[in-house]
Every structure is written in C-alpha cells, then in structure tokens.
Amino acid sequence: MSTRPARSKRATVHDVALEAGVSRGTVSRYVNGERYVSAAARDAIEAAIAKVGYVPNTAARNLVMQRTQAVGFIVHEPHSLFVDDPNIGSILLGANTELSQADHQMVVLIVDSDRDTDRVARYLTGGLVDGVIIVSARADDPITRVVERLQLPAAYVGHPPGAASSAAFVVIDNLGAARSITERLAATGRRRIGMIAAALDRDSGADRLAGFTAALGDSFDEALVEPVPFYSYSAGRDGMRRLLERAPDLDGVFAASDAVAAGAIEALRASGRRVPQDVGVVGFDDSAWARRTTPQLSTVRQPAAGLGAEAARLVLAQLREQEMITERRLDTEIVWRESA
Amino acid sequence: MSTRPARSKRATVHDVALEAGVSRGTVSRYVNGERYVSAAARDAIEAAIAKVGYVPNTAARNLVMQRTQAVGFIVHEPHSLFVDDPNIGSILLGANTELSQADHQMVVLIVDSDRDTDRVARYLTGGLVDGVIIVSARADDPITRVVERLQLPAAYVGHPPGAASSAAFVVIDNLGAARSITERLAATGRRRIGMIAAALDRDSGADRLAGFTAALGDSFDEALVEPVPFYSYSAGRDGMRRLLERAPDLDGVFAASDAVAAGAIEALRASGRRVPQDVGVVGFDDSAWARRTTPQLSTVRQPAAGLGAEAARLVLAQLREQEMITERRLDTEIVWRESA
C-alpha cells in the first residue's frame, strides 16, 4: 500500500502560448478546433502542448462549444447479453467504427437495473453526449422518455413501442423474415412445428412470433409455442425441454435466435433425438453461434454490424442538421445449412 | 423524412426557484448534491424541476465541482472480444453493479483501432471521467501513458508491463493456475501435451504459457506450443488444426481460454479424435463456454465478475482519497469435468 501523491498543478493555455510563441487566442482557436490556425502555429502549439503537458479542460470547452463530440450507445439488456448474444457485440463495433471515422467518441452506457435506468437518464440530461444510439429498448422505457423530452438526436436499433416519434429507427423486417424461414421449414415436410419465442416484451421478439403464426396459418397450434425471457443459450435449452414434455411428437422448431437454437439442439440431443433427421431446427441472426452448432444452423442472416453503422450515420446526420431519416430498413436473407 | 424541430429554450435554475418558492441558492445546493437542503425544500424543488422541465447543465456543474461521477471502463480488444469472450462481459457487469451502487456512471470506451486509441486518450484528458478501469491493456499502450501523465485514479484488470506504477491492479495468478492445471492434465497419464497459447502480448497470455512451461519441466517441447493471436473460438480451431499437422501423436492440450478450447475440441472432432479418450483437453476461465462443449470442459475458474467489482472498488477508494491499494489478487480454482 502507498498513498497517492497530490496532483501537480495543471499547465494552462498561457503556458502553451508562451512556449509556442503565439498568442493565447491562437491557442484557444486551436484547442476549440476552429479554423484559421496556420500550419506553422499548429505545429508550434502541438509541440508546446506535449512539452508543458497541457490538458484542455473539456468541461469548460463544452460550455462554450455546446458539443461534446460524444455519442452514447445505450444497451438495455440483462446479464445474458454480453455473454450470449454476439449480435450486440457486432452492432456495437459497427457503430464504433462509423463514429470513430467521424471523430466522435462512443460511450457505452449499460442499463442492468432500475438504478441504472435512473442514473443513465440523469447522465443524458447532463449534456455529456450529443446524441444516442439505443438498442434493446423496451416498451415505456424511462430512457426513451428522457430522450424525447430533451429532443436529443437519437437512433434506435429496432422499433420499441412508445419510442420518441421524432427519432430515427434502423430495423429489419422481423415479421417477414420469421414468416419466410418458418415456411421454408414447413416445406421440408415437417408437420408439427413448434417455436421457442424469446423476449416478447420487445419488438423483435413479438414480431418473430407474429411471423411464425402467420406462416402456419390454420395449422398453428398455440400449445407448440414456448415463451422464454431472453435470447440466450440456457433459455433455449430449458425451453426446448419443456416443449418436448408437452409435445414429444414435435418434428420442427423455429428458435427465436441462434443462441436459443444452440440450446435447443443440446436439449434435443440430450433427449436422444437427431437433428435434422428427427427434428429440423432453424434459428435467427446468423451470428457466430450458427457455425458452432453440430449440425450447423439454417437461419436468417441479419446485418448486425450494418445496423450499428447505420444507426451511427443517422445520429451523425442529425448532428449535422441534415435531413432527418425516420426509418431505414436493412435486408435479411435465409441461409440454409444442415440443421433443417 | 421530416425536419427536426428547433430545440425549445431550456428552463433555468431561476425558473425552478420561482416555481418551488425557494431561493436560487437552495436550488443550486440541491442540484450540486450538497447537504443542508431541507426535506420540504427538496420535495418542492423536485416537483418544480419536473414541472418546468429543468435540465441541470452538467458541463457547467463539472466546472465547479471538478467531478463528473463517471468512471471510464476501457476495453482494448479486437473484434473477437464481444463475440467470443464471455469473461469481458462478466467483468464489465461486475464493475457496473459496483459503480451503480456508489451512484457512479460507468462509460465503456472501446479501443478497436489506432484512431480509437488517440481519441480515447483525448477523451480522458478532457476530464469527462473521474477515473478509469482498464482491461486488456497491452505493453506500451498509449492509453496507459495518458492515465499516468494525468495521474487519473485507475485500476487495471491484469498487470500490463509498463502500466502506471501509481495505479491499482486486480489480478489472478495466471502462472500458478496454468501450472496447476497442466500438472493435473499430466497426472492423467498424458505423455505428449501441447498448448494453444493465445494473446502473448498480454500479461495473461504470457503468464499462462510460462505456467505451462514450468509444469512440464524437462519434458517441455517447444514444437508443441501453437501461438494464436486472440482468445477466440476460431483461433482455437485453426491453432488446433496446425498443431495436429505438426504433432499427430499429441494426447493432451492446454488451451489458453475456454473459447480456444471449444474451437480445439471442434478441430479434434473433425480430425476423428475422441475427447477425452484420445486427447484430453483443458481450458481456462470457466466461462459460459465451459458447459457448452461436449464433453464439458475441465478448466480453471476465475472470478470474472469479482475482478470487475474489485477494480471498481479500488477506483472508488482512490476517488474518496482512501488508502491506496496497489494490488489485489483474487483466487482461482480448478474445476474438473469430462474433457480430460
């Protein structure tokens, strides 16, 4: 153990100006990113900043500039998120790359409890970000209300009910894609098709169930739908076990995500059933999970990194006060492998 | 498409004071979190804030308070991170829970390119966080240099060479744990034990290889070590393939992480080898991966959420100017399942 030394006195704009041989005004213009600083002055200032150890006070600068050059990335998910859903990681990295290229700092804010919700809402009201990207928002989310009240430039990945109507949305056609892959599964000759439906409190979860229902039409049997709370491997495994108890004659399964499908395949294997010979399984996402299952998954490919990048572009466009795009829909495709 | 409406004029402290029937000083004390605001005044101010839609200007407040109540969580990892390493997610959520309970906002900053490195360094110098937690730092990381120059309260998960000597470190005994599990694997009668060694540019990766080497002593064979860049499933699968080409008679493998082990098991299966009958495999982490492989992994359990929580506590202690803890070592244990 040791005791932290007191911080040394910070260098000021004055110290930099003296060292660089330019006026304080020139240093201020440089620090604030304004134009009209000559290349020679810029070089001298950068050398002087390095030498005297000057640290611009961003809080003070933000007060003048009213811009932080930071964009929040808000993830509202339970613990399973970072552990089980590779899509969130891809969305996040897609957004980060796009913001980075526009010299904006992405700050990820995690909402994992009610306490987090309140504090993140306060953080947003504090003006510490210029705009936000929101994934996995729920219906009546307090954070969406704060974003609306502040009229903060915002883009949602997905379209939660009740989200600020002035925001932008980047979506895929969950309903249409779920309908297509269920129809494809039915076309392989399956007669008793069940669904492990996840996250029904979100638009993606509810829409995938609606697509499944629409695909089956008159042959839809409510008893073959097993709702689980999260898009996770363990939820898929447990849900499949319950579904098999109720419907041991089931011969096809649409799992609401690839992680859910991987868990379902494990439960099917444990019960002695072969995939795809006895039960055909399809997933949703085409995440890293899809190629790790044995057999590899037939699934819906969604452009996860593209969703993040597009959300970032829509927030940046709002910050530049360009025309407001209210919805952008990205394409999905069916990828047919060996699990069905 | 539509055009964003202009922001309405923001309510001020004056508006709140008028509505609440208290002085502006009282509102300021409330907003700045100071004591000596009566319960009655607090209730009136909270009602007034809600009514007039007042948003405290955090940038201005930070200027006065010199505190942001925000702690950065810096992750320096390539893309595979959020996709393949459930440990990072657990560390992150452990830190978030601890900071949340202390009313601090965790802001995650992702470093995925040189451009990110420079910008995150600028973000830190801007005073937008009070302290930082750093995971996966590399040797000579520019971010560690910035943290040292600013004397920013900091805690590292792991101990990168060259990190600020005034910082705190939360570590596990990677070398000792790797040595123990390799010895345990050797004790099952394996004679040709290889290692898929990952991330050798980090302390964790280098220490796990050192532990493996120490365990084997005279029987160590450099040709049986296959270095891969990342702790990922695909790196493990590809590394295992190369190792098998060089050493088809191998009968044991220590994989540097569970994700790496899962990839190795897939490559062994594809080559027609049975685990554990033909080749015993052990991993490291006891992450969610360990229970998803068939057979389930024998591995080293490290307390991932505990590492994050402890790092958060050490930063908070520095912020409170309590005694500085320079290193905290958390325990690991060997969990023996079916893969060896």
Automatic annotation (TrEMBL), chains A, B:
Boundaries of every HTH lacI-type domain copy: 11-65
Keywords carried by this UniProt record: DNA-binding, Transcription, Transcription regulation
Signal peptide boundaries: none
UniProt GO MF annotations: DNA-binding transcription factor activity; transcription cis-regulatory region binding
Matching InterPro entries: HTH_LacI, LacI/GalR-like_sensor, Lambda_DNA-bd_dom_sf, Peripla_BP_I
Coiled-coil parts of chain: none
Transmembrane regions listed in the UniProt entry: none
Classification via Pfam families: LacI, Peripla_BP_3
Entry-linked PANTHER family: HTH-TYPE TRANSCRIPTIONAL REGULATOR GALS (PTHR30146:SF109), LACI-RELATED TRANSCRIPTIONAL REPRESSOR (PTHR30146)
Protein name (database record): DNA-binding LacI/PurR family transcriptional regulator
